[in-house]
Amino acid sequence: MSSLMWYVYEFARKAWADAFTNAHNLPDISEKPERFRDFPKVNKEYCIGCGACTVSCPSPNAIKLVRDEDSEEGVGLTYPVIKPGACIRCGFCAEVCPTDPKTLECGVNHQILPEFNIIPSKRQYIVDDYLCIKCKKCMKKCPVEAISLVDDKLFVDQLNCISCGECIDVCPVNGAMKAVFVDNLQDQKNLIVLCVDYLEEYINSKEEDLRTLEKDGLLQYDVSISEIWDEALKIIPDNEIALEIITNAVNRLKIRIIDWDKSKCEKCQLCIPDCPTGCISFDEKNDTIVRDKDRCLRCSICYQTCPFSVIKYFIAKFSMEDDETIHATVKASNLNEDIFME
Question: Which residues, 6 or more positions from 186, have their beta carbon under 8 angstroms from its beta carbon?
């Protein structure tokens, strides 16, 4: 009886009566709230084909890029296509879409915080074991425990790394922890080659210093990157990225320098058959020994073969002192230390 009275009381309540009399019809219910995320709408004319949407999508096969066939009017458009059966309407594709206006729309597009962005970072954090002193400060500082000791080497788990950069901030050795760029790898290689060639040419230009350097002596130079900066920006037209790539390369760079004093050469030609790349030859017309620098491996075999000490062999190391200056240190090579121990 008490249960029946409770139901009668509920039906008699004013709030229930109001709700019943003011109930929405079907069209009213179908109107979605402003922040509701439906299946993404595609404005294919805005698409730049970057693929950010496909990378961000957590649902397999929910979104893919397609390209229309070319026609007489022009090149076919590239744009994303949504598969409703797989789409979970999370809206990540619209959030990461870089075009303005948006190629993809699905309700209100609010931004994901950078630390939770599931788009892979353009930087990949790695440990340079050549420079690492295994102090483990990076491992202790990492907020997500992405750095661990594996086979006595510090290792960054790229699946766990959130690219926060705290490991670089605490690393006491310049260049031991690196944030390398994973985009435009060929451009990066070209930029590094430009820098290496410039530094080698600079050291080779110091012939007088090299030839008078004592066995235990040391040469030091401050080399400005201004000479190659314009050329560097033609390869990678972003000041910050170009400088960072050069810095990462320079801080671990070691170049072997071959100096050839032709004025003292006795033309015995013993170096010619021993050269593994055939870069040394005898120029009969000019009666002199010739070395092709582009083919030379700087392996030091000619240096070891020459009985008259005409050929000199040096090791040059480098570090970035600031954003404009590379500090170079040059010493005469000790083969036991610099060749066989490497």
Answer: none
Q: Cis ω on the peptide bond leading into residue 101 (within 30° of 0)? A: yes
- Tracing tokens 């005898």 back to the chain, one arrives at 282
Beta strands in the chain (DSSP E): 41-42, 63-67, 78-82, 104-105, 123-127, 147-150, 153-156, 177-181, 219-224, 254-260, 280-283, 288-291, 311-320, 325-332
- DSSP letters, 151-196, are TTEEEE-TTT-----HHHHH-SSTTTEEEEE-S-HHHHHHHHHHHH
302, 307, 310, 311: CA torsion to nearest 10: 20
Tell me if 133 sits within 8 A of 173, measured CB to CB: yes
Q: Is the dihedral of CA 83, 85, 86, 90 positive or negative?
A: positive
pTM here is: 0.53
Torsion of CA 152, 158, 163, 167, to 10 degrees: 0
Q: What gap in Å lies between CA 156 and CA 140, rounded to an integer?
A: 12
Which band of pLDDT confidence, cut at 50, 70 and 90, is reported for residue 328? Answer: very high
Using one digit for the tens of pLDDT, what is the confidence trace for 224-268? 999 999 999 999 888 888 898 888 888 878 888 888 888 888 888
